[in-house]
Design a protein that fits this description.
Helix content is about 50%, strand content about 10%. It is built from 15 helices and five strands. Residues about 295-310 have low confidence and may be disordered.
Length: about 300
């Protein structure tokens, strides 16, 4: 992910979506390309055309915060897009000023964090990174995302969304869910462009999914912190859930997401049913584990590790 290319394509795409009328400018005759011209953005931002052209070519080195703010206002960027532009500017300044966000392989939640998730019994709770890997869950979160774990998703929400056909049923409005998924990944790419795991994931999905590749090229970003989503779980049916996303201060780059249903709603009843299925599943797994465990002092079966002959 070359920073100059990212800057150029992001600013170009934001300029192309904004009409002169939306920017408060006169139409100015026939236009060969959609959106604002470079000179119009420069005018709105209060900088020279040459300086803005240099920035849009991908050179953000040394650009002041005031100029970035002026460009953001000119392009009518929302809060997520402003933050993304700031991330791109920090990366352009040099890798020494970026914050490492990669997690070591084999990361596991602290005991206290896992207990906190397990204490949440009214809805799915899970920890994910910016690549949308599900790293830890409570029992309801595990059964909620069971398809994401047992198929091509391999515990990654983005792979599940684009590579598993069942995702089009799980997300009743799949196009919107796909848009959000890619926007989250694009936002993370701005925060940590040196994350090799993210680069590999984007490369894989771009190769295997036309839907992903088209959305990735749109350069849309998103702050995913709160809202409402509708799902269709194969075991209990439709669920309309509110979600809250919390950044884990002690674990930079990781977020805790919690889904809940309105009390007394049909979704609440279905979520309770799913919770009971999770308890049943956990109990069955516990029994299976006990049955498979070796019994201390058991002399009724041969020791497969023994090589002593009688």
């Amino acid at each position: 992910m070359d920073n100059r290319d990212e800057v150029r394509e992001f600013l170009t795409s934001r300029r192309a979506r904004l009409t002169p009328e939306q920017a408060g400018l006169a139409q100015g005759g026939t236009r060969r390309v959609p959106g604002l011209r470079r000179g119009e953005v420069a005018q709105l931002a209060g900088v020279s055309v040459e300086y803005y052209a240099k920035i849009e070519r991908g050179n953000l080195v040394g650009t002041s915060d005031s100029v970035l703010d002026a460009i953001a206002r000119a392009l009518q960027l929302d809060s997520a897009e402003r933050a993304h532009l700031a991330d791109l500017a920090r990366t352009a300044t040099g890798p020494a000023l970026t914050t490492p966000r990669r997690r070591p392989r084999g990361w596991a939640p602290r005991a206290g964090l896992q207990r906190a998730m397990d204490a949440i019994t009214g809805g799915p709770a899970f920890v994910r990174n910016g690549r949308m890997d599900i790293l830890a869950t409570n029992s309801l979160g595990r059964i909620f995302y069971d398809e994401a774990f047992d198929g091509p998703g391999g515990g990654n929400i983005a792979r599940y969304a684009f590579l598993d056909e069942r995702a089009t049923s799980f997300y009743p409005d799949w196009p919107a869910a796909a848009d959000i998924t890619v926007a989250i990944l694009r936002t993370e790419a701005g925060r940590d462009p040196h994350d090799r795991g993210l680069q590999d994931l984007v490369g894989e999905l771009s190769t295997r999914s036309d839907e992903f590749r088209t959305r990735w090229g749109a350069h849309n970003v998103r702050q995913h912190s709160t809202g409402t989503k509708t799902f269709h779980h194969h075991a209990v049916g439709e669920l309309t859930l509110s979600y809250e996303g919390l950044e884990l201060v002690a674990e930079p780059g990781l977020s805790l997401l919690i889904y809940t249903a309105e009390v007394g709603s049909p979704s609440d009843e279905r979520l309770r049913l799913l919770a009971s299925l999770a308890v049943t599943s956990d109990a069955a797994a516990s029994v299976h584990a006990r049955n498979d465990a070796p019994v201390s002092g058991d002399r009724t079966s041969p020791d497969i590790n023994s090589t002593t002959e009688a």
